């Protein structure tokens, strides 16, 4: 009896120890589990949204506020409009900045319209003496653009524009000690605004010449904009003694830019550059007032990341109110936004698609856009299906769940249709291609044999199969470098690449492999062997390493095997691949190009000889190093022309030269699939412009209802888990008790 | 003890220099400053001038290890290696290539990392030790066999499976917690539940197997037999006698990781959208940002060395016979 009591006492002590140690006891495990389960439930309930949804990842918003939830997949590098040249960053800052022009949201082909201007800029051509000449004149030495700004456009509230009673900058200090109390931008409590004026655009153009800002298209703009190179020299000189000092660019002259009055200015370019108008719709030409540059260059500000690279400021529909690159970026409606209205016109089907229902209504519709950092595709897709993200792309992992592909075409799956999700498919203004290095002694060159070898490969390489297998059909075979929507693109039989395809029953059909075999034989490689040496033809495809590419590599080897060619895939890391490209050591490779602007020049320059990578120190866009004098001459003629039948004719001749020389084995234009939940309104993808969010709207009530419907918490698994734990622990406890109380003798 | 700590700290210096040297050498074996500039500036229209300006602004326009344009000490000090390394030893990590202050990022991001890593560590350790002790209590039984089979199975499954499966079950199918995300206030609780549960589960199999072996070895010693002969209950034997004596080998593996908890987990933070230091490191690797990579490797080394020191100190607490001299 005594022994049993002692043992029980010991047990009790141990349980107390164990409780302290681990917060569990075997006898109390089941009840603890219930408690823990209840705690987790309580936490979840406590964190639930107003509809009782436990899995809502968003903080509650005020009633009546229209918020769009979106994602960004990598932290933005730099948000300065003179520096940003990246789609993800443009998605953010293009909602904030307003260059002089913008693209029409609904009309296709892409069409420019004034944004902060009263009308499209007036273009005049001048001769070397400054006299006006006609566009067709052979004496055109300069192009002069005149801009007239709308009056009354105001910047977003910002401390840079705060002024004191003397109308001087409110925040002004000359040493870092004075700046110590301002650790973040929000510490500058007083804000102000100012009107958009011509000098703001001029100031930004001068910033392009600042070498510290690393303007991405300096090579292009410095060649055209009169006086840019001189300005850069002056800036370098001015910084020689005091490299860290702020320079007021208003004090430096730029010959090619002239302020006529407060709302009017001129830009003068060397010769003709018709593509310049497209750059005027790019954020590179967004206005940056001197006051803003001064503010961000106050002592100590740049070191604290209080700069344009982190805090963009503009006149656009939205302003950035939070920039936490590690988790969240928030854009909110700019209270000073100038009156702009939803368009009345669009494409024919826009009306039936409900895209003209808000015509004439003031923009923007949204009050807030929250971008959350999501690095993985699965959480984005899951939250989209739960209604917590309004929009999603369709990745390979989620493709089968989202889209049904059949002989009837592409359609949403039943699950997506039940949710009311809509699908937008857009052929991007982009071209992906497999290129030959034209400097390579085997696949490059311009002899008939070398052309036949390339043509044989072009016929054997079944791009359509590649798109079907590895891109889920998301792409369109390219007949030339020009994608749909770009002047010079021709659909149907007119645009057919007759070296590779035949037109059969109203559609392109790849030529039979026998033709490719014959061409290969004529090229000196019958059956894939060198006619002279008898050695097999081994070609190298240089690519970047990706562990998931094995299936695709096997497929590529099979494609070349149909001709008897042995394909050696040299997968390497990205840096080594870039080295090979720059030194022209790659033989074949994959490359791609997304349009900067909707002009054939922006694609055909990929084949322009002087743009070759080897000829431009690695910075050229002509990765194949293709160089055909006739093509180059036609390019030079075509690039300065306006769209016309004559230009079309030249482009077609250039495309025939390209097909004859075949520097690209094959190419396609990617198709993007975008899914929108039912409550997203006015969405129309725009291949060139990112200024789309001010036109979009959200039906918040519908979203609330759907979220509520789709996210009811299922609690039975918690009780099941608790029960299972109980059933596991109880026999163990009983066995222990039995062992402890059983008599030894 | 203080002389021991001082001596060990002194020994740490050459280790840190070596780690820093190897990090630098390995990084620049596969990256050149030009390639870093190109990665940062984008892939369209990169002019040689822009690359030069980028390198100049960040101090990458100097030679890597040896500057033959200089004389004397400057041949070594006016190099990327020296200029980027020497400041690390006073914990001046500088800025990322994008211009963010790394120390500020570390200060901000260590808390979300800790919010996940600390509960996973504490709960995971407690559960694993508890279960392994229970298994030892029922050794050579069907219960032990069943638990070990389950543990081997759990140990063999990739942590990615737990993460994706957990997100599917708890977040999507049952709608009990958010699939991913983070809020820097009390609302973070609901975002932490799932990564903590998954962290504990994914470490459970391996933990129980190791601790069971440690405790089994102790369970066969004479003092346990003596205690049992005295009539001490099994639970008292386990938790009062066996557990403290099994602590030394456990501490060897456990204390060393405590300081590194700040650094977070690369995979977990990436999948759950936790804005911690693991996520920061991944960003640095992806964007070829040497400033981030070297800082995080250096910090990891410092914390690991600190962990080893703490382990030695913890021996003296766990076993009074141990003296640090």
**What is the class of the largest domain in chain B in the CATH system?**
Mainly Alpha
Spans of chain B with pLDDT under 50 lasting ≥5 residues?
none
Rg of Cα set of chain B = 25 Å
Q: Within the CATH hierarchy, at the fold level, what is the topology of the domain at 81-320 and 334-339 in chain A?
A: Dipeptide-binding Protein, domain 1
| Structure class of chain B | mainly alpha
| Low-confidence segments of chain A | 1-30
| Shape by Cα distribution of chain B | globular
Within the CATH hierarchy, at the fold level, what is the topology of the largest domain in chain B? Answer: MetI-like fold
Total count of domains of chain B: 2
Annotation keywords:
heterodimer; A: 745 residues; alpha+beta; Dipeptide-binding Protein, domain 1; Dipeptide-binding Protein, domain 3; eight-stranded mixed sheet; five-stranded antiparallel sheet; 22 helices; globular; disordered N terminus; B: 325 residues; mainly alpha; MetI-like fold; 15 helices
Molecular structure report:
- The complex is a heterodimer of chains A (745) and B (325).
- Chain A is of the alpha+beta class and 745 residues long.
- Helix content of chain A is 31%, strand content 17%.
- In chain A, the strands form seven sheets. In chain A, strands 12, 15, 16, 17, 20, 21, 22 and 23 form an eight-stranded mixed sheet that branches. Chain A has a five-stranded antiparallel sheet with strand order 5-4-6-8-7, covered by helices on one side.
- In chain A, helix 2 (29-46) runs antiparallel to helix 22, helix 13 runs antiparallel to helix 15 (513-522) and helix 19 (629-639) packs antiparallel against helix 20 (645-661).
- The longest helix of chain A has 26 residues, at 716-741.
- Chain A is globular, with a radius of gyration of 32 Å.
- Mean pLDDT of chain A is 90; it is low at 1-30.
- Chain B has two domains: 2-90, no CATH class; 102-318, Orthogonal Bundle (MetI-like fold).
- In chain B, helix 8 (159-173) crosses helix 9.
- The mean pLDDT of chain B is 88.
- Chains A and B meet through helix 1, helix 2, helix 5, helix 10 and helix 22 of A and helix 2, helix 3, helix 6, helix 8 and helix 9 of B.
């Amino acid at each position: 009896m005594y022994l049993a009591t002692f043992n029980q006492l010991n047990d009790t002590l141990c349980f107390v120890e164990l409780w302290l140690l681990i917060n569990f006891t075997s006898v109390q495990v089941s009840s603890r589990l219930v408690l823990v389960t209840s705690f987790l439930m309580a936490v979840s309930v406590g964190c639930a949204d107003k509809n009782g949804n436990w899995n809502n990842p968003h903080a509650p918003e005020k009633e009546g506020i229209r918020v769009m939830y979106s994602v960004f997949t990598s932290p933005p590098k730099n948000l300065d409009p003179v520096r940003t040249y990246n789609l993800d960053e443009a998605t953010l800052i293009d909602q904030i900045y307003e260059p002089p022009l913008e693209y029409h949201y609904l009309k296709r082909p892409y069409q420019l319209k004034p944004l902060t201007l009263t009308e499209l800029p007036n273009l005049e051509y001048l001769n070397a003496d400054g006299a006006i000449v006609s566009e067709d004149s052979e004496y055109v030495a300069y192009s002069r653009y005149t801009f007239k700004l709308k009056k009354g456009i105001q910047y977003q509230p910002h401390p840079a524009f705060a002024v004191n009673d003397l109308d001087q900058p409110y925040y002004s200090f000359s040493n870092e000690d004075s700046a110590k109390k301002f650790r973040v931008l929000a510490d500058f409590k007083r804000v102000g605004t100012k009107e958009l004026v011509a000098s703001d655009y001029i100031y930004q153009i001068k910033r392009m010449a600042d070498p510290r800002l690393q303007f991405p298209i300096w090579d292009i703009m410095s060649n055209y904009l009169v006086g840019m190179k001189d300005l850069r020299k002056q800036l370098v000189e001015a910084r020689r003694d005091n490299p860290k000092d702020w320079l007021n660019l208003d004090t430096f002259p730029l010959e090619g830019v002239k302020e006529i009055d407060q709302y009017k200015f001129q830009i003068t370019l060397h010769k003709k550059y018709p593509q310049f108008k497209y750059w005027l719709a790019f954020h590179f030409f967004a206005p940056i007032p001197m006051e803003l540059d001064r503010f961000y260059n106050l002592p100590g500000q740049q070191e604290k990341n209080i700069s344009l690279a982190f805090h963009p400021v503009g006149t656009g529909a939205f302003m950035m109110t939070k920039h936490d690159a590690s988790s969240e970026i928030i854009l909110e409606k700019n209270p000073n936004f100038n009156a702009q209205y939803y368009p009345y016109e669009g494409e024919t089907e826009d009306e039936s698609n409900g895209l003209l229902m808000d015509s004439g209504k003031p923009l923007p519709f949204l009050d807030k856009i929250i971008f959350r950092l999501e690095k993985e595709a699965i959480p984005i897709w899951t939250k989209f299906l739960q209604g917590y993200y309004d929009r999603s792309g369709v990745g390979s992992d989620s493709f089968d769940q989202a889209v049904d592909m059949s002989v009837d075409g592409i359609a949403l799956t039943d699950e997506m249709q039940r949710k009311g999700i809509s699908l937008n498919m857009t052929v991007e203004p982009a071209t992906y291609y497999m290129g030959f290095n034209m400097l390579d002694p085997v696949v490059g060159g311009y002899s008939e044999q070398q052309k036949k070898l390339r043509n044989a490969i072009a016929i054997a390489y079944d791009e359509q199969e590649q798109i079907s297998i590895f891109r889920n059909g998301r792409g369109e075979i390219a007949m030339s470098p020009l994608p749909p929507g770009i002047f010079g693109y021709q659909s149907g039989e007119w645009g057919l690449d007759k070296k590779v395809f035949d037109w059969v029953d109203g559609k392109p059909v790849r030529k039979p492999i026998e033709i490719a075999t014959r061409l290969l034989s004529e090229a000196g490689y019958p059956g894939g062997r060198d006619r002279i040496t008898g050695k097999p033809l081994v070609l190298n495809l240089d690519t970047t390493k990706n562990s998931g590419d094995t299936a695709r590599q096997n497929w590529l080897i099979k494609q070349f095997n149909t001709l008897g060619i042995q394909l050696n895939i040299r997968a390497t890391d990205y840096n080594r691949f870039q080295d090979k490209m720059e030194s022209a050591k790659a033989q074949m490779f994959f490359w791609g190009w997304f349009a900067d602007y909707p002009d054939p020049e922006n694609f055909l320059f990929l084949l322009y000889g002087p743009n070759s990578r080897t000829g431009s120190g690695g910075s050229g866009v002509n990765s194949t190093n293709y160089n055909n004098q006739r093509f180059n001459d036609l390019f030079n003629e075509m690039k300065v022309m306006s769209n016309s039948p004559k230009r079309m004719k030249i482009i077609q001749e250039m495309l025939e030269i390209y097909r004859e020389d075949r520097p690209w084995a094959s190419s396609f234009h990617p198709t993007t699939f975008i899914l929108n939940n039912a409550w997203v309104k006015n969405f129309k993808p725009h291949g060139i412009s990112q200024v789309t969010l001010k036109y979009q709207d959200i039906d918040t009530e519908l979203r609330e209802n759907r979220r509520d419907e789709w996210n009811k918490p299922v609690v039975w698994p918690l009780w099941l888990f608790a029960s299972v734990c109980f059933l596991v622990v109880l026999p163990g406890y009983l066995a222990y008790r039995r062992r402890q109380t059983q008599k030894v003798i | 003890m203080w002389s021991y700590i001082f001596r060990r700290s002194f020994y740490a210096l050459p280790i840190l220099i070596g780690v820093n040297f190897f990090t630098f050498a390995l990084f620049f074996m596969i990256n050149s400053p030009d390639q870093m500039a190109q990665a940062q500036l984008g892939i369209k229209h990169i002019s040689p001038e822009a690359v030069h300006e980028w390198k100049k602004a960040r101090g990458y326009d100097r030679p890597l290890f040896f500057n033959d344009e200089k004389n004397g000490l400057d041949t070594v000090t006016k190099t990327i290696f020296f200029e980027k390394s020497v400041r690390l030893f006073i914990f001046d990590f500088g800025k990322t290539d994008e211009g963010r202050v790394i120390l500020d990022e570390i200060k901000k991001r260590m808390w979300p990392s800790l919010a996940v890593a600390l509960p996973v560590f504490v709960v995971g350790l407690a559960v694993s030790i508890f279960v392994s002790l229970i298994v030892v209590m029922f050794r050579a039984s069907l219960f032990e066999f069943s638990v070990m089979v389950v543990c081997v199975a759990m140990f063999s499954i990739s942590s990615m499976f737990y993460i994706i499966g957990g997100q599917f079950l708890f977040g999507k199918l049952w709608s009990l917690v958010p699939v991913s995300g983070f809020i820097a206030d009390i609302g973070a609780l609901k975002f932490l539940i799932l990564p903590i549960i998954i962290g504990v589960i994914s470490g459970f199999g391996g933990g129980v197997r190791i601790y069971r072996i440690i405790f089994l070895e102790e369970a066969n010693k004479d003092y346990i037999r003596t205690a049992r002969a005295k009539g001490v209950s099994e639970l008292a034997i386990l938790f009062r006698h066996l557990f403290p004596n099994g602590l030394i080998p456990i501490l060897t593996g456990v204390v060393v990781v405590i300081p590194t908890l700040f650094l977070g987990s690369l995979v977990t933070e990436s999948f759950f959208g936790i804005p911690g230091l693991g996520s920061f490191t991944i960003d640095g690797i992806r964007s070829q940002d040497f400033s981030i990579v070297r800082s995080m490797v250096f910090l990891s080394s410092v914390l690991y060395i600190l962990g080893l020191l703490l382990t030695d100190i913890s021996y003296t607490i766990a076993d009074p016979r141990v003296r640090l001299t």
